Amino acid sequence: MSAFTTALGPNGVARRMILFTSPSPRALMSRGDVVITYLRQRERPRYAPQGRPPGKVSILRAEAPPPHFYRYLYDLVGRRWNWTTRKKLSDGDLSAIIHHPQTYLYVLYVGGVPAGMGEIDAARPPATEIRFFGLSPDFIGKGYGRFFLANIVDLAWATNPAEVRIETCTLDHPAALPLYQKFGFTVFDQQKGVVDLAGAAD
C-alpha cells in the first residue's frame, strides 16, 4: 500500500500509478518495478460460516481514533509490507481522513491485544473500498486472517455500495491476492510503478 500519482496511458486516458518514496538509506532492496492489482466484488458474497479462531477474539470499531493510535496500528500491521503513505501525513491531514464520517476503522483484538486492522472507505460512492487490511506479524498464519477478512467484507457491504473494492501489490504478503480471490474478488485492473523501499522501516 503506497502513494499514487496520475499518468497518461497509451490511449491518453489518465491512469493511477503506484508511487513509493522514502529518504531513508536503509533500503531493503533497490528501486524496481512493482505491480498493483485492483479487485472488486459486484455482489454481496455468501460465505460459509467461518470457524472462530482460537483465543478471546473481538472486532471493534475505533471511532475517531487519535492519530498516535492509528499510527501504532498502521506500523504494527504495515511495517513488514512497506506501508508508507500514511506515515508522511501530518496529524491534521491524517485526522481529516480517519475521522471522516464515512471512514470506518476496525481493529481485531485477540486476548485484548491489537492483532489486525481493517479500514473501509465509503466516502466515494458508488464503490466502497477496503483501503487497508492486515494482521500483526504475531498473528499471521494462525487462522485469524480469513475470519477477520470475512467480517471486514461484510462490514464494507453494510455501507450499501454498488461494489466493494480492494487492492494488493507485489510488496504485500504473497497469500493476499489468492486469499482475496478465494473470497470472491475478481481482478479488474493492474498497474506498474516504481518502488523505493528505503523508508518503510523508519
Structure report:
- With 202 residues, this protein is an alpha+beta fold.
- The chain has a single domain (40-186), classed as Gcn5-related N-acetyltransferase (GNAT) (Aminopeptidase, 3-Layer(aba) Sandwich), CATH 3.40.630.30.
- It has helices at 67-78, 91-98, 144-157, 176-182; strands at residues 3-8, 14-19, 32-41, 57-61, 103-110, 113-121, 127-135, 163-169, 186-195.
- The strands form 2 sheets. The protein has a 7-stranded mixed beta sheet, sandwiched between helices.
- It is globular.
- Mean pLDDT is 85; it is low at 1-30.
Total number of distinct structural domains: 1
Distance between the termini: 16 Å
By CATH, the topology is: Aminopeptidase
CATH superfamily name?
Gcn5-related N-acetyltransferase (GNAT)
List the helices and strands and how they pair.
Elements: E1 3-8, E2 14-19, E3 32-41, E4 57-61, H1 67-78, H2 91-98, E5 103-110, E6 113-121, E7 127-135, H3 144-157, E8 163-169, H4 176-182, E9 186-195
Parallel strand pairs: 7-8
Antiparallel strand pairs: 1-2, 3-8, 3-9, 4-5, 5-6, 6-7
Concise description?
20% of the residues lie in helices and 35% in strands. The protein is of the alpha+beta class and 202 residues long.
Main features:
single chain, 202 residues, alpha+beta, Aminopeptidase, seven-stranded mixed beta sheet, 4 helices, disordered N terminus
